[in-house]
């Protein structure tokens, strides 16, 4: 919160422009979901991936968010998916593989001609 000569104001959402905001938010989510096993939920900053075999298991995660007064942006949510792009990888029942964008980037990368370009390619493809 902050004060002006006229009133007091407080933010309703985390400001991700602040240097410690991502770490603070990550710590909050890790604390909220500490009792769930890692094979049920994966959290990276504001990306939450729920692994559930039933609707009830998925709702358990959503209830934790609701009880903490956290809101989801429904336009950015995907529900009942069997394959999803997560952090640049395609995650499905078959496993994890590079996402289409990464495969395209590697396929279209020009033939390296310098040591620097080889290093760029290795960074991209690993």
TrEMBL record:
Pfam families: RVT_1
Span of domain Reverse transcriptase: 7-91
A single GO BP: DNA biosynthetic process
Cross-referenced InterPro entries: DNA/RNA_pol_sf, Rev_trsase/Diguanyl_cyclase, RT_dom, Viral_Replic_Matur_Polypro
Protein name, per record: Retrovirus-related Pol polyprotein
Organism of provenance: Anoplophora glabripennis (Asian longhorn beetle)
